[in-house]
């Protein structure tokens, strides 16, 4: 599940349904587990990439920490201890676990083969197996969740390598992993808007697109092919305060920008294509920090906060129009939004009294605000561990701290020190599911990465150079 699969005659599998081909077994148990439509096809393709649909397959190579990937969907023994060997090597129980971990087939971020696109070459075989099964009920496609925006942003290229962009006083700087889950390149200077806020997201064809805004100018650049080189900077609009980008269910990117007159947005007129003119988003907080997330049904949601007010807007249908702005709470310094394994959204906001938390109790209603403690007036980011727990990171000028769920879809523990102070923090996931955190200061850009459930590397430069100062 977190490395390439080594097929072996492992522990004896439980009784398996009769099947004409290995892919038929995956289709049958996947359907029984609850996968439907596109989600079922993707599930079979992921299992083919992970195990060749061999229920006794095991892998221990390249797993960090040392652990075993097991069975059809290669459920990892470390990150998913709730799945014992008896279950992991039973085809139906393994499929049931994969259904739960993938949130019903909408979130495959815990599988390295999906993150690296290795499942794509198996889609034809997977569709054939689903066709032979004879069930064509509609079902969800995997959701594309937005990445965190800020003065430093990171996302995976189509081949699974992380890329990072940091905004300095002299423009944007860029570094990338030279191998999947691996080491980093030297930093390169790209020019572009100075002191910018950044957002990054994938086109439907897998090409990343980067957006940069400051008070005077808005520009973007994009990969010329998946995992390939980048275009030059192109104008995208006038200046503003902050930006966020997400992908609609049909693959079209949608960009929001805040400024002194509220929020505006523009969107691709077709997947991988040109853009609409700028349109008013119907108001929203002026000069706000904004983040975007995706509901479990695929609708984009936008959250915007300034020093006085916090508001929320959401699509009324997948790929559709937008609601009016709703009051979401008082003002604050920054925010981060993530999703539980069951799809419910989690929102954190910082202010002078620390970090507060609000979460969906069901798809249409929210809890009240709850105090969590944490650093005052901090910059925030969040990401999900390979087992599906949300982890939150906060940094201000004095300290960096870290908070995480005690279990999947569960409450949170206590804040723990994560390092010294800085100016910005962002988290991303490697192709093997491990979180990597980037922290910035006037000294440059550091990073830490997960080595286990609660163990982390020390802070280090990405390579031999510090990268740009981010004040």
Automatic annotation (TrEMBL):
Keywords: Signal. Pfam families: DUF8189, SLT_3. The keyword Transferase does not apply. SUPFAM superfamilies: Fucose-specific lectin (SSF89372), Lysozyme-like (SSF53955). Residues 149-464 form the PLL-like beta propeller domain. Residues 1-20 form the signal peptide. Residues 27-113 form the Transglycosylase SLT domain. The keyword Signal applies. This is Transglycosylase SLT domain-containing protein. The lineage of its organism: Bacteria, Bacillati, Actinomycetota, Actinomycetes, Kitasatosporales.
């Amino acid at each position: 599940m977190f490395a390439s699969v080594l097929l072996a005659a492992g522990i004896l599998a439980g009784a398996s349904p009769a099947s004409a081909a290995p892919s038929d077994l995956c289709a049958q148990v996947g359907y029984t587990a609850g996968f439907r439509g596109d989600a079922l096809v993707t599930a079979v393709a992921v299992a083919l990439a992970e195990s060749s649909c061999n229920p006794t397959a095991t892998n221990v190579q390249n797993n960090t920490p040392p652990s075993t990937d097991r069975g059809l969907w290669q459920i990892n023994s470390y990150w998913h201890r709730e799945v014992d060997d008896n279950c992991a090597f039973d085809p139906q129980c393994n499929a049931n676990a994969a259904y739960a971990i993938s949130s019903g087939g909408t979130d495959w971020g815990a599988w390295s083969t999906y993150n690296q696109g290795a499942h794509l070459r198996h889609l034809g075989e997977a569709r054939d197996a689903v066709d032979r099964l004879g069930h064509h009920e509609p079902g969800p496609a995997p959701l594309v969740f937005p990445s965190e925006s800020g003065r430093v942003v990171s996302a995976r290229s189509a081949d699974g390598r992380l890329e990072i962009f940091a905004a300095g006083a002299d423009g944007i700087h860029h570094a990338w992993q030279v191998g999947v889950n691996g080491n980093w390149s030297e930093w390169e200077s790209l020019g572009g808007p100075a002191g910018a806020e950044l957002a990054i997201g994938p086109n439907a064809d897998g090409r990343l697109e980067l957006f940069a805004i400051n008070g005077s100018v808005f520009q973007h650049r994009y990969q010329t092919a998946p995992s390939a080189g980048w275009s030059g900077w192109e104008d995208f609009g006038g200046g503003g305060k902050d930006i966020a980008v997400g992908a609609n269910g049909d693959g079209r990117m949608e960009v929001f920008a805040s400024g002194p007159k509220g929020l505006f947005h523009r969107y691709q007129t077709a997947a991988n294509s040109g853009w609409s003119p700028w349109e008013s988003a119907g108001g929203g907080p002026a000069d706000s920090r904004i983040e975007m997330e995706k509901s479990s049904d695929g609708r984009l949601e936008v959250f915007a906060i300034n020093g006085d007010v916090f508001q929320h807007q959401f699509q009324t249908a997948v790929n559709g129009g937008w609601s009016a702005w709703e009051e979401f709470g008082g003002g604050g310094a920054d925010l981060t939004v993530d999703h539980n394994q069951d799809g419910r959204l989690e929102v954190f906001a910082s202010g002078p009294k620390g970090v507060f938390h609000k979460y969906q109790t069901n798809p249409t209603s929210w809890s009240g605000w709850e105090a969590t403690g944490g650093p005052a007036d901090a910059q925030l980011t969040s990401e999900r561990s390979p087992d599906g727990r949300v982890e939150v990171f906060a940094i201000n000028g004095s300290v960096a701290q870290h908070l995480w769920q005690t279990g999947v879809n569960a409450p949170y523990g206590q804040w723990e020190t994560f390092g010294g102070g800085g100016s910005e923090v962002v988290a991303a996931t490697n192709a093997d599911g491990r979180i990597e955190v980037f922290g910035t200061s006037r000294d440059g850009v550091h990073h830490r990465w997960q080595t286990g459930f609660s163990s982390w590397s020390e802070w280090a430069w990405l390579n031999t150079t510090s990268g740009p100062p981010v004040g």
